Amino acid sequence: MSVLNTALRESLRALRLSGMPETLDARRAQAHGGELGHPNFLQVLRQDEITRRETVAFQRRLQRAKFEQQVTLEEFDFTSPKLPAAQIRDLAALRWLHTRESVILFGPVGVGKTHVAQALGHLAVRQGAHARFAKTSRILTELADSHADRTWDKRMRELIRPDVLISTTSPCAS
């Protein structure tokens, strides 16, 4: 690596363009091979950085969501007669998210409510929203504990911060 390359890489890091060094050599080879002119070279490098940042942000939102499973609607089996497939597909348009409405999924045990809820959350995360998944029992326990340790306000802020809060309940024992 030449001094110029080292200086360039350090400058890119200082400018917080950390994705560019990852693709710089490949893009330079394309430019030297005649595949990219100067303006296109810069445009492709810029797009590489944008793509990297979007990917990192998506992964961060997905990790913060704390989904039990990474599921999507694309892999969901809509053949069950107990599921209103048309309504689920309508929910997938995420109009409820943009109008800040609540969605409640209810039905018998085992039809896929939790899968659908997490898949809708995953879809919202893909579109840039922040989501959080938690069992209702855990939320209630944490809120009860927050009275004792005087962190009620902090925990409530954590619950209302995400754009989407997905809370599920376990079936009751008879």
SSE layout:
Elements (H helix, E strand, L loop, with lengths): L2 H12 L5 H13 L5 H28 L19 H7 L3 H4 L14 H14 L4 E5 H13 L3 H9 L3 E5 L6
Parallel strand pairs: 1-2
Helix pairs in contact: 2-3, 3-6, 7-8
Distance between the termini: 70 Å
CATH H-level superfamily title of the largest domain: P-loop containing nucleotide triphosphate hydrolases
Q: Which class do the helix and strand fractions yield?
A: mainly alpha
Order of H and E elements? HHHHHHEHHE
Beta-strand residue percentage: 5-15%
Total strands: the figure is 2
What is the count of structural domains? Answer: 2
The radius of gyration over CA amounts to: 23 Å
Please give the share of residues in helix.
55-70%
Mean pLDDT: 86
CATH topology of the largest domain: Rossmann fold
Task: Walk me through the structure.
- The protein is 57% helix and 6% strand.
- With 174 residues, the protein is mostly helical.
- The protein has two domains: 3-65, no CATH class; 73-168, P-loop containing nucleotide triphosphate hydrolases (Rossmann fold, 3-Layer(aba) Sandwich), CATH 3.40.50.
- The protein has a two-stranded parallel ribbon with strand order 1-2.
- Helix 2 packs antiparallel against helix 3, helix 3 (38-65) packs antiparallel against helix 6 and helix 7 (136-148) runs antiparallel to helix 8 (152-160).
- The relative contact order is 0.10.
Outline of the structure:
The protein has 174 residues and is mainly alpha-helical. It contains eight helices and two strands.
Which labels suit this protein?
single chain; 174 residues; mainly alpha; Rossmann fold; 2 domains; two-stranded parallel sheet; 8 helices; 57% helix
